[in-house]
Amino acid sequence: MRALHIASTGMMAQERNVEVTSNNIANMRTTGYKKQRAQFQDLLYQDLRRSGSNTSAQGNQVPVGVQIGSGVRLAATSRIMSQGSLESTGKELDVAIRGEGYFQITLPDGTTAYSRDGSFEIDSEGRLVTADGYEVQPGITFPDDTRDITISNDGEIQVTVGNSTQNTTLGQLTLARFINKAGLEPMGDNLFLETNASGAPQVAVPNADGYGNMLQKYLESANVNSVTEISDLIAAQRAYEMNSRVIQAADDMLSATSQLS
After folding, report:
1. How far is CA 259 from CA 135, 250, 253, in A?
2. Ranges for the Flagellar hook protein FlgE/F/G-like D1 domain (predicted)?
């Protein structure tokens, strides 16, 4: 019975929907996390009577055909790249991006990854690194006797060294933009990789035309709305239940047919 297969695709689709929603909820407190949304497409149709086919030798045509669908499938899990709220941390190495752009991170194999997570640290060599020890581009090295660190809105890093009362400029942070940021490939650890879909990165200083700026002692929260996610979870659960009832109804119909004498 075709209804069994159709409903099973609906149940599998809603199972994937719940998985996407659960991942959003699990990352509600992940710095710089961008929520995902499951997108679905209907499957192929079987034409029992094709629209526009002739019904007589005089050329009369069927205005509306008869098509039976075969279910649904998960087409994509698009990522919503909207700005998350900014939260004050008071830590001088925490930096939030306000607007467009990504920090550039050098991975151990030399690959450049991209992130919205600005919770930085200083390693044993004085380099500005992520929580996993990956160096932030362009490389910034702090002197051993650094006292105060100031990161301006346009990404310039200044420090006070030793007993000096003068600020010393160490370097300039830059931001990368992509023509299709939703096409970036997530690799975990709050990092993304460039893909053919995202396009090549365009690098500039913060506050340049089309780029965001930086805010020291702040971090960007996940753009996940708890109320929306719970609503989506309930809707997915109800859709799953309705598909399971279709399977039960089809099973009852088959059972009734088999009992006919």
Report:
1. 71, 14, 10
2. 96-159
